[in-house]
Design a protein that fits this description.
Order of helices and strands: EHEHEEEEHEEEEHEEEHEE
Strand content: 25-35%
Oligomer: single chain
Number of strands: 15
Radius of gyration: 19 Å
Low-confidence stretches: none
CATH class of the largest domain: Alpha Beta
CATH architecture of the largest domain: Alpha-Beta Complex
Structural class: alpha+beta
Shape: globular
Strand order of the largest sheet: 2-1-5-3-4
Number of helices: 5
Mean pLDDT: 91
């Protein structure tokens, strides 16, 4: 037998009633078997387990992967690095985003253009499911989130080699309408070098693989907003 630490995030944390637990499992237990063990232990998770995402030591894991002793395992719903001579800033923070400071950190003497995307809390939603939002509560699996942000930055550089500086910052905690929640910024020497496309790629990729979730609270009650994209092992 071996003991592992299991972390629960977003709606899974609510369903289980705790953020983490030490579980004793048989040697040779696979991710698929662990899902079965957890769903039996917490029946409230049974319906969510088939579409759950599992990470072992901050990396996405397949159902066939065997869990090693002393592993840190995280279970969560689908989410809504590398060296470079150019600056890369990644952070999960509860601090208010300072756009000028972040831009200064990724601006070089040769920089002539910056493309910045910032998402913010929307107070009124008018399409699909019209409603009002009182506030959003963001949480993240911080060590893995920052590691995956570095990965997104590396992917941006591979696809858009003219990009110089990159900043990827996600706020967590309780955020009210009009408050910036996430920032993706890319700088380059010129505006026609793919810098716009790079920041668009960054936010789209962040929504796929960076483990960050939000709970929406309003007059209609509260609900965890979850995605549908299931990352592949090694992604």
């Amino acid at each position: 037998m071996l003991t592992i630490r299991v972390l629960f995030f977003a709606s899974y944390k609510d369903l289980v009633g705790k953020r983490q637990e030490n579980l004793v499992i048989p040697l040779g237990t696979t991710v698929a078997r662990l899902k079965h063990i957890v769903s039996e232990r917490y029946p409230g998770l049974a319906r969510a387990i088939p579409s759950s995402v599992v990470a072992i030591n901050h990396e996405f894991a397949s159902d066939e992967q065997v869990i090693a002793p002393d592993a840190e395992v995280a279970l969560f719903p689908p989410v809504s690095g590398g060296s470079s001579e150019f600056p890369t800033v990644v952070s999960v923070t509860e601090v208010t985003l300072d756009l000028d400071d972040l831009l200064a950190q990724i601006t070089l003497p040769s920089t002539g253009a910056a493309s910045i995307f910032s998402g913010m809390v929307r107070g009124i939603t008018t399409r699909t499911d019209p409603h009002e939002t009182t506030y959003l509560e963001y949480e993240a699996y911080i060590p893995m989130a920052e590691a995956k942000m570095h990965q997104v930055a590396t992917e941006i550089r591979e696809r858009f080699p003219a990009v110089q500086g990159i900043a990827i910052v996600q706020r967590i905690g309780r955020l009210y309408p009009g408050t910036p929640t996430v920032l993706i910024a890319c700088t380059a020497a010129h505006r026609d070098t793919g810098v716009f496309e790079a920041s668009r790629y960054g936010i789209d990729r962040l929504k796929e693989i960076v483990p960050v979730w939000k709970k929406e609270v309003g007059s209609q009650g509260q609900v965890w907003v979850e995605g549908k994209y299931l990352p592949k092992p090694g992604e």
